[in-house]
Design a protein that fits this description.
Blueprint: H1 2-29, H2 35-53, H3 57-61, E1 64-72, E2 76-79, H4 80-92, E3 102-114, E4 117-127, E5 136-149, E6 152-162
Parallel strand pairs: 1-6
Antiparallel strand pairs: 1-2, 3-4, 4-5, 5-6
Length: 180
């Protein structure tokens, strides 16, 4: 009798363990973002910012899916790797050799939106760290759609909304680089 009780207790505990594991797996695939997911999405913004600031088009492009859509306010829209590569090439061209501009992100709100997808809203600000009086050059909000691909999380759509009253009048630095 004692052996039967031990066996039944073991089966019951094992069943709860299996049920809990299956439940956790189901939650993870139905819209729960793990800490690892959030860290990977956060890293995309670092790639995007440093790719922009250090003129590394490949780093910038690899934050996006191949068929991504990238918009800047009402300035323009680029769809897919080919258009985005050309825009990035043109936006880097007028920069001087001593281009020193930095992007900064904050107030991250990343929300799961379905199986392997999420949306995000993030503030940005940008400044020139070599300016004699350090001042913010422009600000805005990114609205993103992320997807989990075979190569990890990527930006599927990004709409950069420059703030109308930012110091450069809402003109994103990425669209109107100054020559120094």
């Amino acid at each position: 009798m004692r052996a039967l009780q031990i066996l039944l207790t073991g089966i019951l505990i094992g069943s709860f363990g299996v049920f809990g594991w299956v439940y956790a797996q189901g939650n993870n695939s139905s819209g729960v973002l793990t800490g690892s997911d959030l860290a990977e999405i956060h890293h995309l913004h670092s790639q995007y910012n440093q790719g922009t600031d250090f003129e590394n088009a490949e780093l910038w492009l690899n934050a996006f899916t191949e068929d991504a859509i990238f918009r800047i306010g009402d300035y323009g829209e680029w769809i897919g790797r080919e258009q985005m590569t050309e825009w990035r090439r043109q936006s880097f061209a007028p920069r001087s050799d001593n281009y020193t501009y930095r992007h900064w992100n904050s107030s991250w709100v990343i929300t799961p939106s379905g199986d392997g997808e999420a949306t995000g809203r993030i503030y940005w600000l940008a400044f020139d760290p070599t300016a004699e009086v350090l001042a913010i050059s422009d600000t805005g909000v990114y609205e993103d759609i992320y997807v989990k691909t075979a190569n990890g999380w990527r930006i599927k759509q990004r709409h950069a909304h420059p703030d109308d009253r930012s110091p450069e009048g809402g003109q994103s630095r990425a669209t109107s680089p100054r020559n120094r």
